[in-house]
Write a structure and sequence with these properties.
The chain is of the alpha+beta class and 490 residues long. Helix content is 42%, strand content 14%.
Length: 490
């Protein structure tokens, strides 16, 4: 085995030794052991030492050898005892023990790579190079870490920004859906939809101006124009059930009630108002509620109903609900639900209750307890076994997520199953008028019938009327309604 005279590196052949003398190995430099010079190859290193550091008179570097050597691991100056120091203190770091060349020279292996040196001082400088490279690498890792953290911070910031944008879009969508986006109310939508009808050729200009004039007049008086109303359905149903002998064992019907459907002005959001008009049409026919309704004989328009709900809020009913709408409904397309109907009826001294069927009570997400409650409501005052019972009970307001309807009765089949009878404001007058025909059959009743299997919303709420409030009861109820409570089933 050949050894480099300058650097002590073990070389495999003479050509390798010659190449090593011409240039330094790739990625590695030779440093002068006596200064900071770094010649490019071993030959240059020899010439540098001979010219820059001539040997002292008493032998080659004898004084320097005594003063310069330092331990490459702890930095302690050990002079000529460096080898003994490294073996004693740091032998466990030298993975491979010091070897013998066979000719009396000792080899020192780098603990961090496969390089073998004959000079402990050269080994020290070589190890220092490893440590410098390691520090640079550590610095690079730190920079990479800082860059990664910066990029992650920017990514998190962007993600939060996107989430905020999405939340704002969802909020705006909900505002549009529930009519709280300041896009106008009943009047604005009515006129806009009529203009579309004219542009599409479905309405003539003179019809547009006539309907507009009639609509503005009704709004000025606060009354509904009656163009979406269908009357007489309860009476027609009584006659139908008297002659129907197939599968209906008994049926209970509410007091007389008119059907109202959505129009050009409230399509898409007016179901709650239309169901209130249906309920009110029944109360107006019952003398028990004449004083409560202050002698009113006509059904109020949707903008008028909005004003009536605002008045109820001003009295103190459902302050939490009022804050949700910023205490204002007029001029908006805001949806209303059971709480607003309850507050309005209570402000009119009409006794009512909210019943919350807050979760399914039957298989498949159904609500059999809801149908049982309606049956008790209508059958409570009926006596005897008459097949058709036309009660004096007002209809029931029925609410679920996104829609509301009016319960006008309930059937009991011969197999004991129950079926609700509902007025839906989504059905037009043309469809509802089919129920008035003398030759009415079960096909027409599909518009009304809802079995338990078709009532699978997660939650239902009903508002049921049950008498009149005294002034004292109204005041107490108003005070208590700051936080509305309901009967919960189950």
């Amino acid at each position: 085995m050949l050894l480099c005279d300058a650097c002590g590196q073990a070389l495999s052949s003479e050509p390798a030794a010659r190449r090593n003398g011409r240039r330094a190995p790739l990625g590695r430099y030779h440093y002068c052991p006596l200064c900071s010079a770094a010649p490019p190859g071993c030959d240059e290193l020899r010439r540098h030492i001979e010219m820059a550091h001539p040997a002292p008179p008493d032998g080659p570097w004898s004084e320097l050898d005594e003063g310069l050597p330092e331990c490459p691991f702890c930095g302690e100056s050990s002079g000529r005892e460096l080898e003994a120091h490294v073996r004693a203190r740091h032998g466990h770091l030298l993975d491979v023990p010091v070897a013998d060349t066979g000719n009396g020279d000792q080899l020192y292996e780098c603990p961090m790579c496969s390089l073998t040196c004959t000079n402990i001082q050269i080994l020290q400088e070589h190890v220092d190079l490893h440590l410098e490279e390691h520090n640079v690498s550590e610095g690079g890792n730190t920079e990479d870490l800082e860059l990664a953290q910066q990029l992650q911070s920017e990514e998190d910031k962007w993600q939060r920004s996107e989430e905020e944008k999405q939340e704002q879009e969802e909020f705006k969508k909900l505002q549009r859906q529930y009519g709280l986006d300041n896009s106008g109310g009943y009047k604005q939508q009515f006129l806009k939809n009529m203009e579309k009808e004219v542009n599409r050729g479905r309405m003539k200009p003179f019809e547009y101006h006539k309907i507009k004039a009639d609509m503005l007049e009704c709004l000025a008086f606060g009354i509904d124009d009656g163009k979406t109303k269908t009357s007489g359905i309860i009476e027609a149903l009584c006659k139908y059930y008297q002659n129907e002998n197939k599968d209906v064992r008994r049926v209970w019907l509410s007091a007389g009630v008119d059907h109202f459907h959505s129009s050009l002005g409230d399509r898409g959001w007016g179901c709650g108002y239309r169901n209130f008009q249906m309920l009110l049409s029944s109360l107006l026919q019952n003398s028990l509620y004449s004083d409560c309704l202050r002698g009113a004989t006509q059904i109020p328009s949707i903008p008028k109903i909005q004003s009536m709900i605002e008045d109820a809020w001003k009295e103190g009913f459902d302050s939490q609900g009022a804050s949700h709408f910023n205490s204002r409904l007029r001029g908006s397309k805001a949806w209303i639900g059971a709480c607003e109907i309850y507050s309005l009826l209570s402000s009119l001294r009409i006794k009512c209750q909210i019943v919350d069927f807050h979760k399914p009570t039957g298989p498949g997400g159904t609500h059999p307890r809801l149908l049982e409650w309606v049956l008790r409501y209508y059958s409570a005052d009926s006596e005897g076994g008459a097949k058709v019972v036309c009660t004096s009970k007002p209809p029931i307001y029925l609410q679920h997520q996104g829609h509301s309807r009016t319960v006008i009765g309930i059937e009991e089949k011969k197999n004991k199953t129950l079926c609700l009878l509902l007025f839906d404001p989504g059905y037009s007058s043309q469809e509802m008028q089919k129920l008035l025909k003398q030759n009415n059959d079960a096909t027409s009743l599909k518009l009304l019938r809802k079995f338990v299997g078709s009532l699978k919303e997660k939650q239902y709420q009903i508002v049921a009327v049950d008498g009149v409030l005294s002034l004292e009861e109204k005041a107490a109820l108003c005070h208590a309604s700051h936080v509305l409570t309901s009967e919960r089933i189950p």
